[in-house]
């Protein structure tokens, strides 16, 4: 049985996030605001079905997916692109590959102790850690 991601997590740190946004060609003003935000991440998991929300005072983002099923994701409010997204399990880690305009794009989530970790990729990594 894969890991249980159900819960609400508060961001504790956010390393290299601005570099990640630069790689996605996110405009200067948005980057300056976004890098100072403390986000909350909510997971509702039913087996391989996930409903996620990333919440902040600036912008919210909902992402619903089924592990192993590719879907078209509209990154509205983020970098406003359309990507083909596939999330899979790697042990207890959720691994996402997003195919589209930007190469090597995706993310990886895992739980270690009482912390939710996230590494985002697009040509290089950006790390974020959330507390429950």
TrEMBL record:
This protein's GO CC annotations: cytosol
Organism superkingdom: Eukaryota
Keywords linked to the UniProt accession: Transport
Swiss-Prot/TrEMBL GO biological process terms: retinoid metabolic process; triglyceride biosynthetic process
Domain Cytosolic fatty-acid binding proteins: 7-24
Record-level Gene Ontology MF annotations: lipid binding; molecular carrier activity
Pfam families in the cross-refs: Lipocalin
InterPro entries, alphabetized: Calycin, Fatty_acid-bd, ILBP, Lipocln_cytosolic_FA-bd_dom
Family (UniProt): Belongs to the calycin superfamily. Fatty-acid binding protein (FABP) family.
Name assigned to this protein: Retinol binding protein 2
């Amino acid at each position: 049985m894969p890991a249980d991601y159900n819960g609400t997590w508060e961001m504790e740190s956010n390393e290299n996030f601005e570099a990640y946004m630069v790689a996605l060609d996110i405009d200067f003003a948005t980057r300056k605001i976004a890098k100072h935000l403390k986000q909350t991440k909510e997971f509702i998991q039913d087996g391989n079905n996930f409903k996620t929300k990333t919440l902040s005072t600036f912008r919210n983002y909902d992402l619903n997916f089924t592990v192993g099923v590719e879907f078209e994701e509209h990154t509205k409010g983020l970098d406003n692109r359309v990507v083909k997204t596939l999330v899979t399990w790697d042990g207890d880690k959720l691994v996402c590959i997003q195919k589209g305009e930007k190469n090597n794009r995706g993310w990886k989530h895992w739980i270690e102790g009482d912390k939710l970790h996230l590494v985002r990729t697009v040509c290089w990594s950006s790390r974020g850690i959330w507390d429950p």
